[in-house]
Write a structure and sequence with these properties.
Number of helices: 13
Number of strands: 12
Strand content: 5-15%
Distance between the termini: 31 Å
Helix content: 25-40%
Structural class: alpha/beta
């Protein structure tokens, strides 16, 4: 089997999983408990929090709040910050942000969406034109989860703050964390990450926020996470997250180059008479989005699965939406006839160039056969 749907989820890192198993089998205590075993686990959580945070942020300026997933982190950022005036986001957001922002609209908050470019990156001029003195929150995805386009959130947040310094700036960093080398700056107030995208397990994520920033809790209860997010912490998932994040950042540049080689090898082998490319632009090496000409992406996905190749057609989190066509892909300016054939191929450092070439041969065969049948 060749697995090329790593943007949806990654295989848990075996080494990190084995290392963390003791927190499931032996040290399973409640970290909020007053007995010694619980206190020891509380110290483990503090260590994990700092080790994950320091990979991308100054621990003197930022804090990290563990959540159940990236979606919860996004929701907490949106609902905790977009409480007045208007909220500005983009048409290329993950559904965790896009749907949350639209819920704000239902609640009476004015919502404004910036257009995106042909590669899925935000149209910065349009974004800035939507901001005024009543804007409370701007949310811009770091790496587009469907096209791989990278938004320069360091530069964008700086321009946003220059226009209105009171704005809170949030970014969904789920597809960037552990993959794209960067460090958070003072202009970024909130940043969402997820464990299962970097070799951790599902059920664990985090919201990173500027230390001086106070936003209302999203989940109420026992006051865990220093009152920011109630609920007994998933120590096992958090420790895998810590180990996997540390491992990814120890070789992030090397992994970046590996992914680039795999991505371009796959594109090079695809038959250009059967496939076209959504503009690469400034894109993540971990995501390659192509269009199969005249064949539904879902059809290709199922046939590829039968042949031992697992791929995606877009965001797995949007697979339950009623709309047949991807909101993001249409916003890129791609018409419905082509949007129906979109395939998302996403990589991990474990994927090889040989796998990429084999995957391309499988895809060429499927689309060629389908077109011959329809001819």
């Amino acid at each position: 089997m060749i697995y090329l749907d790593n943007a949806a989820t990654t295989k848990p890192d075996g080494e990190c999983l084995d290392k963390a198993l003791k927190y499931l089998k032996e040290e399973y205590f409640n970290p909020s408990a007053l007995y010694a075993e619980g206190y020891k686990l509380n110290k483990e959580l503090r260590s994990a929090r700092e080790n994950i945070l320091k990979t991308i942020a100054d621990t003197q300026k930022f804090v990290l709040e563990f959540t159940s997933c990236g979606t919860e982190a996004d929701n907490h950022a949106v609902f905790g910050s977009g409480k007045r005036g208007n909220v500005v986001s983009t048409l290329g957001e993950h559904s965790a942000v896009y749907s949350a922002v639209n819920e704000l609209k239902r609640q009476g908050i004015e919502v404004r969406f910036a257009e995106i470019n042909g590669d899925g990156s935000v149209n910065i001029s349009h974004l800035l034109s939507l901001i005024d003195d009543k804007t409370s929150l701007v949310s811009v995805i770091h790496v587009n989860n469907e096209t791989g386009a990278i938004n320069d959130i360091l530069a964008i947040s700086k321009e946003v703050k220059a226009k209105n310094s009171r704005i809170l700036f949030h970014s969904d960093g789920v597809q960037a964390f552990g993959k794209i080398p960067f460090k958070l700056t003072d202009n970024i107030d909130l940043y969402s990450i997820s464990a299962h995208k970097v070799g951790g397990i599902k059920g664990c994520g985090a919201l990173i926020k500027r230390k001086s920033l106070v936003i209302s809790p999203y989940i109420f209860g026992g006051g865990q996470e220093n009152g920011a997010r109630s609920g007994t912490e998933n120590v096992f998932g958090i420790k895998i997250f810590e180990y996997a994040a540390s491992k990814k950042y120890s070789c992030i540049s090397e992994n970046f180059k590996k992914a680039e080689e795999v991505k371009y090898a796959l594109w090079e082998e695809l038959d250009k008479s059967l496939f076209s490319l959504i503009d690469l632009g400034n894109s993540s090496p971990y995501i390659l989005t192509v269009i199969a000409h005249g064949v539904r992406g879902e059809t290709v996905l199922h046939e590829a699965d039968d042949l031992g190749l697992i791929i995606g057609t877009g965001s797995a989190c949007a697979s339950n939406e009623k709309n047949r066509y991807s909101r993001t892909i249409l916003a890129c300016g791609i018409d419905k006839a082509l949007a129906d054939g979109v395939l998302r191929l996403s990589f991990s450092p474990e994927n090889t160039v040989d796998e990429a070439r084999t995957a391309a041969q499988i895809l060429n065969k499927i689309v060629s056969n389908r077109k011959n049948i329809m001819a």
